[in-house]
């Protein structure tokens, strides 16, 4: 168990999310997802969580493990072409994870998802949260556009575009 990590999580609350993601920023992120989805048949979700709960911390749950749980809880996997993508931010760790459904994951290498995550984390380290998320959405959108281009000006919106703030 990492004591420093535990303290960071215990002292990172929902106020921290409001500090870095204003209502205006959340609206802009939702709009970026909506605009991206016009050019492809994929679905993008953005979820941010301030910190892990105590049981998760005690079992040393990683950001990646939590992101997989959130992917399932938000039903990002439940798209017609199996091309949903979750961007998950664990704010206490400043950790970004991208979880992609099997339809897109077989076409984009894990290293590419990892590169996008690290670029977002670099922006976050500079205090550019909104910019970092939108850049990540754009990068993911380019992959979805390449592999799942729209034939009708954007298909049915299968998942909400609005960012979700998770209650840990």
In a nutshell, what does this entry contain?
This protein is of the alpha/beta class and 168 residues long.
**End-to-end separation:** 19 Å
- State the CATH class: Alpha Beta
Q: Architecture in CATH?
A: Roll
- Coarse shape: globular
Count the DSSP helices: 8
The poorly predicted ranges are: none
- Counting structural domains, the number is 1
Stated plainly, the CATH topology is called: Diaminopimelate Epimerase, Chain A, domain 1
Which structural class fits the helix and strand makeup?
alpha/beta
Mean pLDDT: 94
Largest sheet strand order: 3-2-1-4
State the oligomer: single chain
Question: Which range does the strand content fall in?
Answer: 5-15%
Total E-strand runs: 4
Specify Rg, calculated over alpha carbons. Answer: 15 Å
- Please give the share of residues in helix: 40-55%
H and E order: HHHEHHEEHHHE
How can the largest sheet be summarized? 4 strands, mixed
Region (Disordered): 148-168
Domain TPM: 19-142
Protein name: TLP18.3, Psb32 and MOLO-1 founding protein of phosphatase
Organism: Nitrosovibrio tenuis
């Amino acid at each position: 168990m990492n004591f420093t990590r535990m303290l960071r999580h215990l002292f990172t609350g929902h106020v921290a999310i409001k500090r870095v993601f204003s209502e205006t920023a959340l609206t802009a992120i939702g709009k970026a997802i909506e605009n991206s989805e016009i050019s492809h048949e994929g679905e993008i979700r953005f979820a941010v969580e301030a910190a892990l709960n105590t049981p998760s911390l005690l079992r040393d749950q990683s950001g990646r493990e939590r992101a997989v749980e959130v992917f399932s809880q938000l039903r990002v996997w439940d798209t017609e072409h199996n091309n949903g993508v979750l961007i998950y931010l664990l704010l206490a760790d400043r950790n970004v994870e991208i979880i992609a459904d099997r339809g897109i994951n077989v076409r984009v290498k894990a290293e590419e998802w990892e590169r996008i995550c690290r670029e977002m984390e670099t922006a976050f380290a500079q205090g550019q949260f909104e910019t970092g998320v939108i850049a990540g959405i754009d990068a993911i959108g380019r992959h979805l556009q390449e592999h799942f281009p729209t034939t009708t000006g954007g298909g049915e919106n299968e998942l909400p575009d609005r960012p979700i703030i998770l209650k840990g």
